[in-house]
Please model this.
Amino acid sequence: MEREIYDRDRAGVSDAVLLEDYTSDDVFIANLQKRFHENIIYTYIGQVLVSVNPYKELPIYSEQDIQTYRKKYFFENPPHVFATSDNAFRLLIEENRSQCILISGESGSGKTENSKKILQYIAAASGHVESVESVKDKLLQTNPILEAFGNAKTNRNNNSSRFGKYMDINFNWQGVPDGGDILNYLLEKSRIVHQNANERNFHIFYQLLSGGDEQLLEKLHLKRNFADYSYISGGDILPSTDKNLDDANNFKVVMNAMNTIEIPKEEQDELLDIVASVLHLGNITFGVGEKGHSTVYENEAVHAFANILGIEFDQVKKCLTHRTIDAHGDLVTSPLNRDQSFYARDALAKAMYARVFDWLVETINKSIHTPTSTSRVKTNHVLGVLDIYGFEVFETNTYEQLCINFCNEKLQQLFIELTLKQEQEEYLKEGIEWTPVEYFNNKIICDLIEEKHVGIISLLDEECLRPGDATDLTFLEKMNERLASHPHYIFNSSRASLVIQKLVHRDEFQLRHYAGDVKYNVDGFLDKNSDLLFRDLKEAMSASKNSIIKLLFPSSEFLLSRKRPDTAITQFKNSLNNLMQILASKEPSYIRCIKPNQLQTSDNFDFELVRHQVKYLGLMENLRVRRAGFAYRRTYDAFLERYKCLSKQTWPNFKGNPRDGVQIIANELNYGADDYRMGKTKVFIRLPQTLFMTEDAFQLKKNYVASIIQARWKGKIQRRKYLELRESVIITQSYCRRVLAKRRLAERKGAVERIRFFIKGFITRNQAPNECNAKFIQLVKQMWLIRLSKSLPNSFMNHSWPKPSAHCEEASEHLKKMHLLYLAKRYRDRLTPERKAAFDMKVLAESVFKGAKRSYPKSIPHWFINDRVVDHHQAQIKSFIKSPTFGERVIYQTSCMKYDRRGYKPRERILIIGDKSLFLIDAKTYKQKHRISLNKIPNIVLTKEGDNLLLVRIPLELKKDKGDLILDVPYIIECCTWWIKATNNINIIQITDSATFSHNMTSGKSGVIQVELGTASITTITKAKSGNLLVIAAQ
Model:
């Protein structure tokens, strides 16, 4: 527990005794809330375990968790139901002290689940002995059977126990369960005939209808529709999503459990017959006959009821409509009215079910008894588990609530007495002065209810048994008269205050319980207490062919015994007093269960609802009693073992008496004289602050101590390892030296062989490959490839290549070719679309002019462009192009010189190649001189020399153009390439190798162009003396 104190700000304290303000219920509930939101549902109040229902599965009940709490001191681990179970189990086995675990709380607070966890722990902790495995299985399988017949869905809990259960588990001398015994208390019989809105009857009815097969339902004359049966249609009949209400599957579980309990198949069938007969009984209705007497409507239900139980039909009708009274030996039969018949029907249903439930508990007890088990009176090897209803306060509280709250008053009385007794015994045992503790003694309330002749129970029995017209109101009047002066009894009267008159109605009384004031409505008190079952009904049941019913309604009950049976509340009081004797003879452990909210949802903590339960469970009273003395106590050994590091005198091992060591620590921490007491075997600390200060000091010291322990331990481990290694190394070294020497000798021999082999390979390196030089040649190739990788040309224009060795020449040629291709491809991949188009022009020019035109090489270094017009003509040419008369896209434009066809006089012109036409513009006036459609031009003629002469052939039919055009174009190769691109006709270019060729003139005449190769670096074009056009081409 101490290890959790350090986290108290986040997860609260695990023992409420350590709360600083232990008198405040707000502080107590806030601590529960803080732990609840951290998924910590268990908290201690000393030895008392408080459990908050999480409404979800938590991973804290595994086999590993059981082992964590197995054979550990109670406060050694965090609070848990397993810790409480283990503590009780060990005290039972090791110290031979009978134990009981009392579980209480509201409906839906988790009582049944905690009782299951106790059985789970006991089954696991007692080991797996084959001879008693069946006993443990039977103990575990009692739950589904009793839940089916005794649990129901309420507005507060989908699996609410509607009865109290006490189970004794017997153990043999080895600590193994070998039998058990179950006592049941106050089954809620009224639920058979009536349920509140959104509630259900007992589970077994729905399980039978949902899980029974068609053959079984047909045999029992049942249908699956819940709404067809009066006793279960008044509440919630809608299918539920809760896994606990999976009726069809749970029916299979119940039937399997019956087989485990070893209930014979015949008795199982008869048990289901009785369940079905109760459903049919609820559907029997009555009418009014002659003289207002009741008559039975002969519907399907009454026949089914009679057939299933094997009772004569007429006898069924008679017992439900008549009443026979034994008047001093004379039997007098009188008819019932309609309301009395309904009362008789419901009384029979309640009696049948209640007696069957008692029979079922008795049958289970017979099954879980073994030849070796003994009764709880003769042995101390008994562990009792009490799962009983908690204090109940509803809007309307009736007879059942009075019984339940009376039971809780008795348990609270026992709880306080045993707690004080336990505290006092421990103080006296340890030699600590005992200071009497003031507390509210609820004996006055218990006496108010159960005291002979004057208590509420006696008055109720007296009213039920007296002759005359006794009613619930006459019972209330009698209580008001007899108990008027009692300080814990409040009623409405003319002399009461206005507050009481408004609070308590005329048909109500109020009791001041230990947990608070509760109003009770007396409506139905007498009927429920009398629990009257007419003789005719008993007689009819005793005639049944169902062996269970025949056993439960013996004929001796109405033939031999004329003594009126005890009333229901007297029976309950007697069984409760018997339970108190049983519990008082055992050493108790307590589990107080709390429901955090009414919605049954996880992570929802209703502060006021929990406050209500804390009050009714008496937890603050328990905490106050526990804190009246010392908040914390531990054995000297346990305290010294945990906190010995806080003093140099006790660390690391204290050789003296543990009591002296604890005293040293107390002095070291400056405990005040009133802060603690030294008992015989334990140290007692009065205030939580003192313990918190001690734990905080321990947490601060822990890291320092841990580092010292680690260092010492690591040093010891390393020293041990060093000595082991040193011994191993010495032995290993002698072997290693020999192995290394032999290895070095082998390595030297191998090295000599490799050197000799290498030298021979070097000598023959230029010869054909052989065994000796193969590796050397491979090495030469590798070295050449490495050198090659470092000197590869980076441009495809660079054709340099390292000279290879003789063995690499062939590979070198392949690699050179592949590398150049790679460089070319890389260059091409990097080209932009514009540059690629320019290359395409160059390629086109190469295909036409390479080897055909001498001036072609000079055009290679320059990129082709589509505008060669000199700058001072640009503006006028752009204006001409934009004019409406132009109307074409410009492909190419350049300045050029035109030679007249007569006299060959040069004139400056501008040549424009459009996408459709050829334009020739006057360079002075910028007027159009020629416009010829490109597709009308058959060809253009060039010389093979290095001149720029361009002869444009004009068809003779175009007379207005006056013959062929003779042009001197500066960039002749570029111009012709663009011309080819514009016409998409490579054949339009005609390159002549003749020294002379003719051109057309006007009127069908022709001229001659004479070409000569000059010596100058420029081309000249003049008129020769012969009258021809002389072109002297550049060298």
Notes: The chain has 36 helices and 32 strands. Residues 1-6, 373-378 have pLDDT under 50 and may be disordered. Residues 688-763 form the longest helix (76 residues).
